[in-house]
Amino acid sequence: MIRTSVIDNLDIQTTISKNRFAGIWKMMQGFRLRYLGAVTSLGVSAAAKTYTYLLLRYFVDTYFVAQEAGIGLPYIALGFVGLALIEGGFAFLSTVLANQTAEGITRRLRNYLYDHIQHLTFTYHSNTKTGELIERSTSDVDALRRFFSDQAISIGRILLLFVINFITLLNLNAKLALISIIVIPFVLAVSIYLFKKVTKAYESYQEQEAVLSTTLQENLSGVRVVKAFSRQFYEIEKFEKDNWEKFVRGKKLLLMHSLFWPLSDILCGIQILAGYLIGAIMAINGEISVGTYIAYTGLVVYIIYPLRNLGRVIVQTSTGLVSYGRVMDIIKEDREPLDLGDYQPDGSLKGKFEFQDVTFEYEPGDHTLENINFKVEPGQVIALLGSTGSGKSTLINLLPRFYEYTSGRILLDGIELNRYPRKYLRQQIGIVEQEPFLFSRTIRENITYGVGRDVEDKEVEQAARAAAIHDVILKFQDGYQTLVGERGVTLSGGQKQRVTIARTILKNPRILILDDSTSSVDTETEVEIREALQNLMKDRTTFIIAHRIQSVANADLILVMDKGRIIQSGVHADLIQKEGVYKQIFNIQTRIEDELEKELASA
Amino acid sequence: MPDSYFEEEEFESKFNGKVFSRIVQLTAPHKKWVIGFMITIAVVAGIDAITTYLSKLIIDNGIIAGNKQALINILIMYATVILVQSGSVFLFIYLAGILGERIRYDLRKKMFNHLQALSLNYYSKTPVGWIMARVTSDSEKVSDLVTWGFVDSMWGLMSILTSMIFMFIINWKLTLIVIAILPILLVIAIQFQRSILASYREVRKTNSKIVGAYNENITGVRVIKALGRERENLSEFSVLSNKMYHSAFRAAWVSALFLPTVQFISALAVAAVVWFGGNQAQIGGMSAGGIQAFVAYITFMMWPIQDIARVFAEMQQAIASAERMFSLIDSQPQITDRPHAIDPGTIKGDIIFDHVTFRYEEDEKPVLSDFSLHVKRGETIALVGPTGGGKSTIVNLLCRFYEPQTGRIYIGGRDYTNLSLQAIQSRIGVVLQTPHLFSGTITENLRYGRLDATDDEIVEATKTIGAYDFIMRFEKGFETQVGEGGNLLSVGQKQLLSLARAVLAQPEVFVMDEATSSVDTLTEALIQKGMQHLLDTTTSFVIAHRLSTIKKANRILVIEDGRIAEMGTHGELLRLQGKYHQLYTRQFRSQLEAAYNPFNQPVTAQE
């Protein structure tokens, strides 16, 4: 399939307009002609329908009223078939074109949104709820798709049917035509009024459905608690309450529906009957022919009944427009420019860092980081100690440019950090997190994730061995092809961490960031992870977010942080000589051994 | 990936008479409603055919005959039937719709109540998402079949039948032509509906993958950015969105082709009618009104056929839904009250494990083998040992979440299978490692422990375990909403609340499974103090890695490979210099380290 570049690569951010309709029109770039084709085809199809009734009129007037032979019967029969072909063919064509448009625009939007989300800043992501973002990228995008594929085209069809048939009626008999549309404002009013109510009732029904789902979900996932307190009966009553409420709201919704259809039936029926009466009298009086009357009875149906649906479509369209707004809210956020930067060395970095008076603020004046000064030579190990909120994670997040420092300078290999493109930097930095995130793919895919090249099995296994996870993987039935997540195996925290270590070994970065938490891991695996980490740290500049003093003793530089500042720095041997937090922590060790001895003796 | 995300597959089953009749049975309690909507929809369909015939009479007896009085009479009749029809429309939507809601309600209730009776073994092998899909979407599909499915079929059949009758009245020869095309139409329609359904199923399947992809993209954005995998991700995703484009487009055009095809076939019938009817006009065999009516009947005929075909295709899905739903309803609880099970009013007394062997699955090796233990009333037993050694299984058996395959468990001198589940479980207080709270306020969650507890008792319970202070720090205090599953609180806070909940229950046997793993040492000490009374007065089982909790136990059991490796008091075991000694020294070090570390903040003070 040949696709022009605008179809593939429209920057949807540029389509944002003050006026929603203008924005939607801009969003349709590359598909406008097609959509126009869809509408035109609809017109042709509607016209063919109209001509069918005109042919019927001719047929009746010629063969039944005048009882003379006009065009031969076979031709008339053929005419009916031909018109049906045109009507059906163009209706089909219209749907095809409309859906190509809708699906095409949606595909482009989905891809853009997907890419956009992964390019949005850390700040945006930490301020936005996951569920909300997923909801907007899926349900709202789908609502927008329906806007293009159904709603907009339905409005077009209803209007075209009305216009074409009304004009035809005007030509058949103007008086009759004008009489036939009296009821239309009422039908429209009733349908818009009731469908607004239906929509409201539907929303409240949906809300209750969500409540019921939560109740069910909590009961199922808390089944042990329910059983432990033997609260089955209580739970049954709780569910019954929510379940009954859903039934009641469903009843309300249905009442709306069961009122709307007969009410509008009666309105339309009055109109049709009035038309029949007047048309028949005109026919009896000879003002119109019998054929004209028959054509009229056919055509008038296409003026009135579709309009009954217009209210529904209009109400639905307004929800489609709301969805458009919600999607555009995401799109109007600016991306993080990955390739922006004027300095990129040909090879790898050396890993020399210099922090000069660096500060960082999430919000102006919040002093998240202040006066950060230190130097790191390539291959050195820097340990950061401090409580939660002391700023050590924030400091680490500056390195891959997840956040931009507010003032001061960070020099990497002598060059200002923000001159490096983010993309390049992130290739050079490997991160092993405290709570690693694995994707619901196979273990092998998780290990090779983000390596950016084809990796041979042997290499994957080597990395897994170095990360002390190979043996664990082989114990699974499908080995490296085992799926991680709900459809596969659940890995323990330590296993997940070792998978990420293997991944980082394959990535082979010059700079390493380790969130060193082994608190939730068994002692045996702790040793293994420690070994795996030792393998990984060789020859790389390593930043360790440490929680325990054992893991920092060998560091080339220890930074003790508190409230966004470095309160102590140096190597272990020096720090234990100085009065301060570090010495305090260190002394605890000896105290612990003393206490242990006492404890054991007293037992 | 969050656990709540569950990719649901769709199924289709061959027609199954048994399942179908069981589905129909669902309507049995509401027979009157079914008869009601069946009759009213039949009336609606019949009147559609009648009005077309009345239109013919307007032309033939009114216009062509030039009879205004006849015209007015016919129109009055027309108006009357339309009023009757509108009333029927109201009734059938109301009756079928509300019955549909009612059957959904019935099904959900039936499944939920049954789920409460099912044992833990069912839950351990059935994903929550799977059960959710049965209760929510399958119940809808099945109830739609017996309401709207019936409505559509009835309407379709009645429409075809009444149209036929009127066509026969007008001209029986021409009717034969129409009858000839009916089967063709039906076959084509069914084929179409099948492939339409299949292609939409494909769309939904791809769509759930797209939702999954977005989910991972958003939840894993940190890793994606760190690994710089944006470009590969986009190209992987565009394969998916491409697939979506093609399957959605296919579904759209297949369904769009259906109507024109049917229209074309009916146009053939119209052409035949015109041809023969036109010839007959000359000899007076066919009137103008008759032609008009025939054309109307033929064009109208494709709607009922389309509906019948759709119902037929959807029925296969509904039957598959029903099969899975019935499988849930039919599954038997593994553990039930024996006949003549009693509630002795109290279960205080010794607890004895007598040569108990237990395995979760029959083909697995036993988790507990030949395990015997005699716990005296009021004793506190600490269980320690490696993960997977069998500690939690002992708790599961004690609470009778599972029953031993061989051997017996005695509580208060009785084989506990002679007691009712309610008798045991309502008197054992269990606090689990992963605390589970329900949406609602803190008070509501605490009262779960004892439904008739007074507010004072609730406050008292929170003071006992040292949760009172953090609760009062919330703006709304005890009326604070905990969020779905308690996700607005920290794990430590949730543990404290679930502990308070168990205390409030005033249990006779008390079980703590790593219940305080996420609270800081200081809070732990507070809990210890507050709980001492409870531990002293009840028979208690404690699984913990906190030394202070273990040390105070009357007996400590080191459980390894489903057996008791070491047993004794703290002092005895330390002197043994064995596994407990090893475990203790290691824990001692890391706990003091954590306790003295100035960077470690108490969990309960956070958030």
Instruction: Write out the CATH superfamily name of the largest domain in chain A.
Output: P-loop containing nucleotide triphosphate hydrolases
- Indicate the low-confidence ranges of chain A by residue numbers: none
The CATH topology name of the largest domain in chain A reads Rossmann fold
Shape field of chain B:
elongated
> What's the helix-strand series of chain B?
HHHHHHHHHEEEHEEHEHHHHEHEHEEHH
DSSP strand count of chain B: 10
Helix content of chain A: 55-70%
Rg of chain B, rounded, reads: 36 Å
Strand order of the largest sheet of chain A: 6-7-8-3-9-10
Please mark out the parts of chain B with pLDDT under 50 across 5 or more consecutive residues, or reply none: 1-5, 601-607
Q: What summary fits the major beta sheet of chain B?
A: 6 strands, mixed
What form of chain A results from the Cα inertia axes? elongated
Query: Which protein chains are joined by the largest interface, and how many residues does each one contribute?
Result: A-B, 149 and 155 residues
Task: Give the biggest sheet of chain A.
Answer: 6 strands, mixed
Proportion of residues in β-strands of chain A: 5-15%
Amount of beta strand of chain B: 5-15%
- Count every helix of chain B, treating DSSP H or I runs of 4 or more residues as helices: 19
**Count of extended strands of chain A:** 10
